């Protein structure tokens, strides 16, 4: 064992300051997450309950095995948009009859559970996760279908939802629909395309067109029950496989369906693992409030990996990127973690080599971000920083082992890409409340804009208004800062959630367990041309 030593002074003023800053950010985060938990607000929640119905999260809780965790995904979806935080849908990974499943649940208290553009993005992301990791999916359906005022944003791309269901089925990944209420028009294809369908008696309404539309189209008089009631679908159309007495019965039946899937993960669960030697609580005091102050990511590694046991690779070379091997909840992982923020040529080459090694050995990779990007300047350009950064990006792009990313601090510029940012398809990507991500830092970006504007004015022979420039810089800085923050980025689905640093080991453990449902094999070759 190579147990990491810790130099964190938990009694010192810096630790206290970092901790206080992190706790402030966590409190802000909690306030925003509470909005998603509130759903459509008191009035609609009460109305829903008065109808004798369970809330989306209650349905999920009853579906899951007792006392098992639920890893909610994209809880802040739609944050900062015109739509309610949470995007009228709950998605996540939970355990049903011992099987890790991808679960989606419409929130019918938010505009009838109608799907807006952010609901769609959230559902697509949930599908991506389910599909990549081969997780059976369970859909708890009660929705007014497309959010009609925003139909132009969702109608055409939204069709992919149904395609995804049938493609999952074709890939042998089970799909289950439990219909609690409305599932009309396009929504009717959710049960239509799932492998297993359960409908709640006197509640489920599944039809292509409701009574008014049918009357308009053909003149036929009808009612909800004969057009799309659960009894009709169970006895006559055959769309429902199970007729449930009520919501509890429907969830019980869903659990029985999963119990009979004969589902087997690609890998056996590892034996119980030793916890880290250091307290997870101390993760609150590592990242400085000001991200320009560097911190040692080994302090983080020491608090998330099994036994704090970490074998570093090439510690003396490219020291501002820490690379090494560990286990997390019994799963082997390779870790790449930024130390001093900047990626130089040596760090980039070291990363490319390390990623290739992980692929040769079939070891998943964890990227811990705190980078301001690749080094700029004459010396570094002449030293080949572009080709070395390209090497790292080539390696991360063509790597075939599963990747996990956690944004702890800065994640700027192409450094975000090289460290397996969102566009590089990590299986999961989470941010800490301390994270910031953008093309560059706000001051740098505002400064660049100002220099460009000044040069442009000079080229045209025009005078430059320094006062206006200062105001513009301040405005741009503020805008970029706001757009770099984790809540904003999470709202846009650029991560899978903002997590409490203390939960990192648990969250990554759930992800590692889930991703071992699907077989994987590292790339033995197949990288692009490495420019030497
Ligand atoms: N798009 C936009 N808003 C919708 C919506 C939709 N598809 N469905 C419901 N809403 C809104 C309602 O206008 C209402 O808003 P308000 O409270 O500000 O007045 C709110 O959501 C709740 O709807 P309400 O009808 O009061 O809820 P309900 O629980 O009694 O009924 C439905 C829910 C879904 C059965 C009903 O709203 C409905 O039939 N919606 C239209 C369904 C449809 O045809 N969709 C097109 C599918 S492609």
From TrEMBL:
- Residue ranges of every copy of the CoA carboxyltransferase C-terminal domain listed in the record: 275-517
Domain CoA carboxyltransferase N-terminal stretches: 22-273
Lineage of the native species?
A: Bacteria, Bacillati, Actinomycetota, Actinomycetes, Kitasatosporales
Q: Which SUPFAM superfamilies match?
A: ClpP/crotonase (SSF52096)
What molecular functions are annotated in GO for this chain? ligase activity
Protein's UniProt name: Acetyl-CoA carboxylase carboxyltransferase subunit
């Amino acid at each position: 064992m190579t147990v990491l030593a810790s130099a964190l002074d938990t009694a010192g003023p810096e630790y206290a300051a970092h901790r206080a800053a992190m706790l402030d950010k966590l409190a802000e985060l909690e306030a925003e997450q509470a909005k998603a938990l509130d759903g459509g607000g008191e009035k609609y929640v009460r109305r829903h309950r008065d109808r004798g119905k369970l809330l989306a999260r209650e349905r999920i809780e009853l579906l899951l095995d007792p006392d098992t965790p639920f890893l909610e995904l994209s809880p802040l979806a739609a944050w900062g948009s015109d739509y309610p935080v949470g995007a009228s849908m709950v998605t996540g990974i939970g355990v049903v009859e011992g099987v890790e499943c991808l679960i989606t649940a419409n929130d019918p208290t938010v505009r009838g559970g109608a799907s807006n553009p952010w609901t769609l993005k959230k559902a697509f992301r949930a599908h991506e996760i389910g599909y990549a990791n081969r997780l059976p999916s369970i859909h708890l359906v009660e929705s007014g279908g497309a959010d009609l005022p925003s139909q132009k944003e969702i109608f055409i791309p939204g069709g992919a939802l149904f395609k995804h269901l049938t493609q999952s089925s074709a890939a042998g990944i089970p799909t289950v629909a439990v219909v609690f209420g409305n599932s009309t028009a396009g929504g009717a294809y959710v049960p239509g395309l799932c492998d297993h369908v359960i409908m709640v008696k006197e509640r489920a309404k599944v039809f292509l067109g409701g009574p008014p539309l049918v009357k308009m189209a053909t003149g036929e008089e009808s009612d909800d029950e004969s057009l799309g009631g659960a009894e009709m679908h169970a006895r006559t159309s055959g769309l429902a496989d199970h007729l449930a007495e009520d919501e509890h019965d429907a969830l019980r039946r869903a659990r029985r369906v999963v119990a009979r899937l004969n589902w087997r993960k690609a890998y056996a669960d590892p034996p119980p693992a030793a916890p880290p030697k250091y307290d997870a609580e101390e993760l609150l005091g590592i990242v400085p409030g000001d991200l320009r102050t560097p911190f040692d990511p080994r302090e983080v590694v020491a608090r998330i990996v099994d036994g704090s046991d970490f074998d570093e690779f090439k510690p003396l070379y490219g020291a501002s990127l820490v690379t090494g091997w560990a286990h997390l909840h019994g799963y082997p992982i390779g870790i790449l973690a930024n130390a001093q923020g900047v990626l130089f040529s040596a760090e980039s080459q070291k990363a490319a080599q390390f990623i290739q090694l992980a692929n040769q050995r079939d070891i998943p990779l964890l990227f811990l971000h705190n980078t301001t990007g690749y080094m700029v300047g004459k010396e570094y350009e002449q030293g080949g920083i572009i080709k070395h950064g390209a090497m790292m990006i080539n390696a991360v792009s063509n790597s075939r082992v599963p990747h996990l990313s956690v944004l702890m601090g800065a994640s700027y510029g192409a450094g975000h890409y090289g460290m397996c940012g969102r566009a590089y398809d990590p299986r999961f990507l989470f941010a800490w409340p301390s994270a910031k991500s953008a093309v560059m830092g706000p001051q740098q970006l505002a400064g660049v804009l100002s220099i460009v504007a000044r040069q442009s004015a000079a080229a045209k022979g025009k005078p430059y208004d320094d006062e206006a420039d200062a105001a513009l810089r301040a405005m741009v800085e503020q805008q970029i800062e706001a757009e770099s923050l984790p809540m904003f980025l999470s709202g846009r689905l650029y991560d899978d959630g903002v997590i409490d640093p203390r939960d990192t080991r648990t969250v990554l453990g759930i992800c590692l367990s889930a991703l071992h449902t699907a077989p994987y094999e590292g790339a033995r070759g197949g990288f692009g041309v490495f420019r030497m």
